């Protein structure tokens, strides 16, 4: 069999992976409409909104299962692209179904079910896309003209494609929310996913220069490899710290959205623009990290991000207390646009160095399964964080019309954010030297 040219392979991988990550990054477009649909259409309170947002992420918890199945079970001789297509069609069906719902005859249970189905499809597609990136970087005999950093460049390209999708999704979402009904925004994204599905099914895995299989590999064997990797103390401690560092922080994003939209009456387009600033910050973070921060020790970098998160939370408390407005003359609109979006994405900035750390620690042969496990642990942590946020908001007396206890909740959130720094020694601080020792 004649193999495709190396340049053609790289181009096809970039197109397929780039489209997959871009579409997933664009998910903020319909989710912005979901927030307003729930607030204005179904008239839910902040706690219910946050419960729904986090409960809809439950399918993310099973990512290791999707990873193991896609590793082991081939469909028509392929074990990545069919899962991307399946994930796309699940999402398309769910968003098109949500687009058909009316505000008067829709229950919270119904929309939650469709959002669960959408996130199930997104999880499956994300695992398959991550696996393609991992496999592309494991070519045993790289082409003569390829650069040694091609795998890291593909990883950076994937991160940038996701961020660019997020930038466009937030920008268009902010502009469309005042001009289109949420149902039309759901319909648009459903049609976009349908296009993604048809593009995926016309791509053959052999064209990516990946090895095709005709028989299924044992799922037990794949699970056994994953368990062996998890017995490594460095891997277990690192994943445990990262998951705990998210879970311990009560998320107050739903409460902040209600405060800005309902209490301050911030225009929806400005809320969208604030999220654009956040996505741009993520894009710049990916570029800066890959160019300048790769050599920084993981523990030092992650600890710095954790401190920055706490500082932004204290700043939010000052904002809610009207300190910036009354004593410094900073308009609410300016603060929301410039700082709120960045404050939200700081949580996700740790994931890039964490992913690279786990990749360095991971034994050969189970990169996809281990990364899926790590991401699922973080997904569980986010869900726990969301539920704790509901408990905290209830404890300080925050409701849809009373935000007097919100500053106290933000200060408690900031205090809990710095607590994980006391056991940051769980993060390996010299991964390179340890990997060399293993090679020797």
UniProtKB/TrEMBL annotation:
Name by which UniProt lists this protein: Folate-biopterin transporter 7
InterPro entries: BT1 (IPR039309), MFS_trans_sf (IPR036259)
Sequence similarity: Belongs to the major facilitator superfamily. Folate-biopterin transporter (TC 2.A.71) family.
Native organism taxonomy: Eukaryota, Viridiplantae, Streptophyta, Embryophyta, Tracheophyta
Main location: membrane
GO cellular component, one term: membrane
Record key words, sorted: Membrane, Transmembrane, Transmembrane helix, Transport
Signal sequence, start to end: none
Organism per entry: Pyrus ussuriensis x Pyrus communis
């Amino acid at each position: 069999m004649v193999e495709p040219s190396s340049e053609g392979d790289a181009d096809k991988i970039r197109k397929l992976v780039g489209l997959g990550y871009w579409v997933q990054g664009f998910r903020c477009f319909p989710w912005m409409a979901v927030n307003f649909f729930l607030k204005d259409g179904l008239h839910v309170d902040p706690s219910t909104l946050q419960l729904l947002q986090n409960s809809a992420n439950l399918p993310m918890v099973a990512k290791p299962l999707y990873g193991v199945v896609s590793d082991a079970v081939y469909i028509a001789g392929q074990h990545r692209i069919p899962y991307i297509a399946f994930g796309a069609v699940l999402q398309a069906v769910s968003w098109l179904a949500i687009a058909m719902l009316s505000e008067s005859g829709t229950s919270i249970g119904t929309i939650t079910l469709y959002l669960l189905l959408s996130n199930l499809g997104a999880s499956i597609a994300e695992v398959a896309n991550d696996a393609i990136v991992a496999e592309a970087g494991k070519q045993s005999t790289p082409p003569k003209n390829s650069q040694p950093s091609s795998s890291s460049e593909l990883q950076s390209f994937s991160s940038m494609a996701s961020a660019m999708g997020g930038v466009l999704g937030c920008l268009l979402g902010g502009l469309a929310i005042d001009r289109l009904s949420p149902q039309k925004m759901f319909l648009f994204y459903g049609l976009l996913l349908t296009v993604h599905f048809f593009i995926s099914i016309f791509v053959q895995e052999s064209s990516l220069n990946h090895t095709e299989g005709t028989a299924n590999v044992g799922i037990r064997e794949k699970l056994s490899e994953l368990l062996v990797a998890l017995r490594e103390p460095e891997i277990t401690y690192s994943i445990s710290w990262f998951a705990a560092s998210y879970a311990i922080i009560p998320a107050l994003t739903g409460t902040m959205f209600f405060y800005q939209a309902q209490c301050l009456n911030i225009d929806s387009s400005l809320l969208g623009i604030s999220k654009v600033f956040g996505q741009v910050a993520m894009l710049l973070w990916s570029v800066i990290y890959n160019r300048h921060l790769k050599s920084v020790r993981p523990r030092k970098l992650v600890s710095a991000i954790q401190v920055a998160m706490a500082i932004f939370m204290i700043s939010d408390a000052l904002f809610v207390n009207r300190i910036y407005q009354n004593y410094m003359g900073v308009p609410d609109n300016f603060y929301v646009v410039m700082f709120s979006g960045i404050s939200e994405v700081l949580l996700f900035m740790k994931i890039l160095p964490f992913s690279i750390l786990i990749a360095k620690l991971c034994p050969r042969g189970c990169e996809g399964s281990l990364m899926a496990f790590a991401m699922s642990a973080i997904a569980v942590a986010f869900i726990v964080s969301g539920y704790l946020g509901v408990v905290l908001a209830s404890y300080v007396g925050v409701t849809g019309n009373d935000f007097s206890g919100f500053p106290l909740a933000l200060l408690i959130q900031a205090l809990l954010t710095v607590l994980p720094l006391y056991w940051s020694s769980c993060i390996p601080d010299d991964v390179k030297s340890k990997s060399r020792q293993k090679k020797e």
